[in-house]
Amino acid sequence: MTDITIYHNPSCGTSRNTLALIRNSGVEPEVIEYLKTPASKAQLQTLLATLGIGARDLLRQKGTLFDELKLADPSWSDDALLDFMAEHPILMNRPIVLTPLGARLCRPSEAVLDILPAPQRGAFAKEDGAVVVDAKGQRV
Fold first, then answer.
1. How far is CA 93 from CA 44, 118, 137, in A?
2. Which one is the CATH code of 1-34+94-140: 3.40.50.20, 3.40.50.300, 3.40.30.10, 1.25.40.10?
3. Do 95 and 8 contact (CB within 8 A), yes or no?
4. Residues acting as catalytic residues
5. Hey, where are the domains in the chain?
6. From CA 122, how far away is CA 135, in angstroms rounded?
7. 63 — alpha (psi -120 to 50), left (phi > 0) or beta?
8. Is this model's pTM higher than 0.85 or not?
9. Phi, psi of 79 (to 5 degrees)
10. What CA–CA distance (Å, rounded) separates 80 from 123?
11. d(Cα 133, Cα 110) in Å, to the nearest integer?
12. What is the pLDDT of residues 87-128, one digit of tens each?
């Protein structure tokens, strides 16, 4: 068992980079591919409480049904937005990482470094080549 969980979309570069940073700390996290295993409304409510954010803060706009469903309309309640996310998991922003040190929506991916219990074990560069961690395992 691991104490780290990532809500992951393998098609997302930010999510892949975040997962790689977790692994660079020597940990194999529990990986939840939330598009294959969608979170229930109750699970989403728990995630929001853990993250300390509102439903609107968890909504992903780009590449989703956001515009089609007119979710920018401020009259949608958090409860209704959670219903939409439970029905259409693509609306959930990612990656979300839970560790013993906290929870984060890791955008950008290096936000995960703030909540990883173990240090980085070596250099790390994102898929685009941007260096995030140097050869000594220190954040750049």
1. 11, 25, 28
2. 3.40.30.10
3. yes
4. 12
5. 1-34+94-140
6. 5
7. left
8. yes
9. -60, -45
10. 43
11. 9
12. 999 999 999 999 999 999 999 999 999 999 999 999 999 999
At residue 110, φ and ψ (nearest 5 deg) are: -70, -10
> Tokens standing for 95?
């990656």
- Helix (H) / strand (E) containing 57: helix 55-58
Kindly give, in sequence order, each residue whose CB lies less than 8 Å from that of residue 112, ignoring residues fewer than 6 positions away: 18, 21, 22, 95, 97, 104, 106
Using an 8 Å Cβ cutoff, are 66 and 60 in contact? yes
In 10 A of CB 77, how many CB atoms?
11
Q: What would the pLDDT profile of 31-81 be if each residue is shown by its tens digit?
A: 999 999 999 999 999 999 999 999 999 999 998 899 999 999 999 999 999
Terminal-to-terminal C-alpha distance of the chain: 30
